Amino acid sequence: MGSNVPLFPVAASSIANDVDHLALFLLAVAAFFSVAIFATIFYFAIRYRRRSDQELPHVQHGGMLLEILWTVIPFGLTMIMFTWGASLYFQESRPPDNALPIYVVGKQWMWKIEHIEGQREINELHIPVGRAVKLTMTSEDVIHSFFVPAFRTKSDVVPGKYSTEWFTATKPGKFHLFCAEYCGNRHSGMIGWVYAMQPQDYENWLNSNPPPSTMAENGSKLFNGMGCPACHKPDGSGRCPSLVGLYGSTVHLATGNTVVADEAYIRESIVEPQAKIVAGYGSLMPTYKGQVTEEDLVQLVEYIKWLGDKSEGNKPPPGTQGEPLTIPELRGK
Ligand code: CUA
Predict the structure, then answer these.
(1) Residues with CB under 6 A from ligand 1
(2) Cα of 186 to ligand 1 centre, how many Å?
(3) Which of 134, 148, 305, 128 is CA-nearest to residue 206?
(4) pTM of the full predicted structure?
(5) Among 91, 271, 308, 327, which one is most buried in terms of CB atoms within 10 A?
């Protein structure tokens, strides 16, 4: 044993060391006060023990300095924990704009992963080292949780919504992937591996598994097959809003509110079209809940993203100025 049971998992992501430092700080503070409190208890119990049956304690009032110290010091310590923890949390919950998108669908009891180029994996995730990766995740059934200890990131994977998780792997290697939420009797078997590879190796891996079509192409086929273009005309002349340039843009709703068109908004608009009606349009669209699987939905989301990405750091692909992409254009992106 010994070396087989490391105290800490390897640190293989850009934030892993920061998370470890915070954890060690919390541990050190907790250890210091545990020792200090128990030492004081024992010291006082002995030093001020009752020495005779007639002895009455001397009652002491006040002690302003002590009161201030034991208020200010814990306050300062907890504020350090709060600001440190919150800044790490914000860092962990905001994927960089240029992160490589990968989709994850959890189900009892496996992880189904899909790359935008169309490669599919089960219980395995291949990623390039040194590049931020953003997972868009959902579940077909119950709550799961995507946990890669070496990256120090974990996020619940919840049916009916998208959650995200991002990381930048810093060293090549093979790292454990766990489901970290009890999800049924084979929960403990819902495990896998993350393969962090040098960028060239990752390219080679992608090219050695050429899929029949990209996610956006699959999405385009679904979009056309379900008759969506009849209403969502690319030039905006249809009965429903044009989806060209939608992703990343700010949408004005009939309620007067606005929403940023992200993956979650697109998914919701397909399965629950009445939830957010675009200003100037009626509530014509029927729900596609039950007609599209979560895996179909991520293809549609990826297609609509490629119809025009207006988020920062992403240039819209060619052919998006008023025209939907054709399949060859999607392939050539
Ligand atoms: Cu999935 Cu536990």
Answers:
(1) 106, 109, 144, 179, 181-183, 187, 190
(2) 8
(3) 128
(4) 0.81
(5) 308
- In a 13 Å sphere around the CA of 138, the CA atoms on its Cβ side amount to 16
Contact 190, 111 (CB under 8 A): yes
Which atom of ligand 1 sits closest to the CA of residue 187? 2
Report how far ligand 1's centroid is from the alpha carbon of 157 (Å): 9
Sort strands 192-197 and 124-128 into parallel, antiparallel or unpaired. Answer: parallel
What pLDDT shows up at residue 330? 47
User: How far does the centroid of ligand 1 lie from the alpha carbon of residue 176, in Å?
Assistant: 14
> Which pLDDT score is estimated for 312?
42
Token pair recorded at residue 317? 């692909």
Which residue, by CA, sits nearest to atom 1 of ligand 1?
144
Phi-psi category of 35—alpha, beta or left, where left has phi over 0 and alpha has psi -120 to 50?
alpha
Question: Is residue 154 pLDDT above 80, yes or no?
Answer: yes
Element (H or E) spanning 72, and its range? helix 64-93
pLDDT of residue 230: 80
The token pair that represents 77 in the structure block:
């310590």
DSSP secondary structure of 101-168: EEEEEEETTEEEEEETTS-EEESEEEEETTSEEEEEEEESSS-EEEEEGGGTEEEEE-BTS-EEEEEE
- For residues 26 and 6, what is the distance between their CA atoms, to the nearest angstrom? 20
Phi, psi for residue 179 in degrees, rounded to 5 = -90, 125
Q: What is the DSSP letter of 250?
A: E
Q: What are 263-317's pLDDT values in tens digits?
A: 889 999 888 888 888 887 877 788 888 788 888 899 899 898 888 764 444 444 4
The DSSP code sequence of 82-119 is HHHHHHHHHHHHS--TTPEEEEEEEETTEEEEEETTS-
